[in-house]
Amino acid sequence: MDTVPRAPLPCAHRIDVPATARDTSADPSAAHQGPDGLGAPHPLEEVFRSGGRAGAGPSQGGRVTAGSLAQTSSYLGPESLLWRYAGDRRYGLVMPRAAALQMLHPAIAAAAEQHSRFPGSLWAQQARAVPQAIGVVYQDAASGARVRRLHEEIKGRDGKGRRYHSLTPDVFFWEHATFVDALMTAIDLFDRPLSREERERLYQESCIWYRRYGVSDRVVPSDYGSFADYFDAVCKQVLESNSVFDVYFEQILRPDAWLPRLLPTGLAPVLLPQPVRHLAGLTVSSADERGFRRFARTVRLSWPVLPSSLRYFPVARQAFNRKGPPHAR
């Protein structure tokens, strides 16, 4: 891994991976690469105007929408993809990706600096925040309200004097979006590439997950394609290098705690999206990619033989005992 001078370049969120996709473990930054290449960045107002509310439009051609999922008794139960994957500990392996995207957001970075219970310790923060978010999938509706209440007093001014509040939809949904992106990346790398239909289904389920917090969904894109455009637009227009990201930079590159510490030394940068690499001034070598490919293959082959206690977070195992194990595939 080499470093190059930092340059603020736009973000481009990768889009769908067909079921017959190449082995994306060689380059996790391209985990959402599709036949059309990079998603084209759009101004945020255009994305929101065209996207509207999640699941607001009618189902067309059998497409799964949040509205249709909500009409079934198992929409976030054993039949859902979220039930299968949100509590999978492999999710934690890709958290350097989500953490980097969060710390480049000026409001989230300021909140981490000013309100964290674990100042200066990125992975202590993530080890608390991620299980709370996962719990909203597997627990009752009150769990989302509890998480929302934790954010009510997280407000202030960022490093440039701009006011922020963590419950502003633009801020709160971005944090959720990084978790959705990380989950899809984990599945693509450590389990199997998602099909287009599965990616859409998982995105719609993630919209239901988000609404359980009780935060406005006015910025939530209606489908996965709109989500990819939204992701591009935020990266291009909102994310920026900042002093908080600089503080956590080494912890992102070389995780020393929680699940990311299991990543082979020096390979965490391979997980970072290409836009983050640009902002951080990083390049990843072919040797780094080959090393990550070997690691990902080892995880894929060994995971099925591990006991459930090692494969799933406790909150997921408890839910499986109450409602049943995952059925979706």
Question: Can you tell me about this structure?
Answer:
The chain has 329 residues and is mainly alpha-helical. It has one domain (2-16, 38-56, 63-323). Helix content is 52%, strand content 3%. It has helices at residues 44-51, 66-70, 81-85, 90-93, 95-103, 106-115, 122-138, 142-150, 169-190, 196-211, 224-237, 243-253, 268-271, 274-280, 286-302, 308-311, 314-323, and strands spanning 2-3, 155-157, 163-165, 282-283. The strands form two sheets. The chain has a two-stranded antiparallel sheet. Strands 2-3 form a two-stranded antiparallel ribbon. α1 (44-51) runs antiparallel to α11.
Q: What does this entry show, briefly?
A:
The chain has helices at 44-51, 66-70, 81-85, 90-93, 95-103, 106-115, 122-138, 142-150, 169-190, 196-211, 224-237, 243-253, 268-271, 274-280, 286-302, 308-311, 314-323, and strands at 2-3, 155-157, 163-165, 282-283. The protein has 329 residues and is mostly helical.
Descriptive labels:
mainly alpha, disordered N terminus, 329 residues
Strand order of the largest sheet: 1-4
Structural class per helix/strand content? mainly alpha
Q: How does the major sheet shape up?
A: 2 strands, antiparallel
Rg, Cα atoms, Å? 18 Å
Oligomer: single chain
Beta-strand residue fraction: under 5%
**Helix and strand sequence:** EHHHHHHHHEEHHHHHHEHHH
Secondary structure layout plus pairing:
Layout: E1 2-3, H1 44-51, H2 66-70, H3 81-85, H4 90-93, H5 95-103, H6 106-115, H7 122-138, H8 142-150, E2 155-157, E3 163-165, H9 169-190, H10 196-211, H11 224-237, H12 243-253, H13 268-271, H14 274-280, E4 282-283, H15 286-302, H16 308-311, H17 314-323
Antiparallel strand pairs: 1-4, 2-3
Helix pairs in contact: 1-11, 5-9, 5-12, 7-8, 9-10
